Structure formats: structure tokens, C-alpha cells
């Protein structure tokens, strides 16, 4: 069983990870909507997504 301190620290880290993921998603969406062609690719290379060609 986790101690209360460890559970708190783990919860804080998980929250930071989610914040970071949503921040990258927001940046990617903003770049894509602003027609900054190719920029969002840098935000999700691990997902294997490629920039759509017109």
C-alpha cells in the first residue's frame, strides 16, 4: 500500500503529465488551425501521424 505522502506525490505527477499532454494538444490544434503547415507534426511524432496533404 502507498503511503499518503507517496500517493499525493504520485497524484501531483499524474496531473502534471495530463496538463502537459493537453497543452501539446492545444498547441497542435492552434498551429493546425492557423495554417502553420508542418508545425503540429512536431507535437505528435510519437503518434505516427503525418501532416495531411491537400
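-> sequence recovered:
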Amino acid at each position: 500500500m502507498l503511503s499518503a505522502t507517496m500517493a499525493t506525490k504520485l497524484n501531483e505527477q499524474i496531473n502534471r503529465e495530463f496538463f502537459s499532454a493537453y497543452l501539446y494538444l492545444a498547441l497542435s490544434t492552434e498551429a493546425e488551425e492557423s495554417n502553420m503547415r508542418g508545425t503540429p507534426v512536431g507535437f505528435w511524432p510519437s503518434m505516427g501521424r503525418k501532416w495531411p496533404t491537400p
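The two ends are 53 Å apart (CA to CA).
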